[in-house]
Amino acid sequence: MIAVDTNILVRFLTRDDPAQARSAAQLMEGNPIFIPKTVILETEWVLRYAYHIDKKAINQAFRKLLGLPNVNAEDPQIVFQALSWYEKGLDFADALHLASSARAISFASFDKGLAKKASKLTPVKFLKL
Question: 74 FRET partner, CA 20 to 30 A, in 3, 64, 89, 93?
Fold first, then answer.
């Protein structure tokens, strides 16, 4: 299994550099691939801020990518939960943090907007600070 970095995923998804996109596609399509959660997180940020791709398109691209039979994500249930919450309006990083914290009894943040949005989507208890 080969673990990939953010730049491989970005080239594979955007195809913005033809030579690197070909190399990324050959790698991604011809091998068992492992994608760490941190790479998924960074890729979302790069696609949204550097490439100005909207959240819906990013969500669709991730679901298609993670649905490939040779692709394995770290903690796939957590990643898919985060994608679900992302689709429903949470920031992807916040959604991934929350989904990754499911074993905790509560979540602490000064971000009141996060607490308000998340309370509609998840039973996670937020500490009032």
Answer: 89
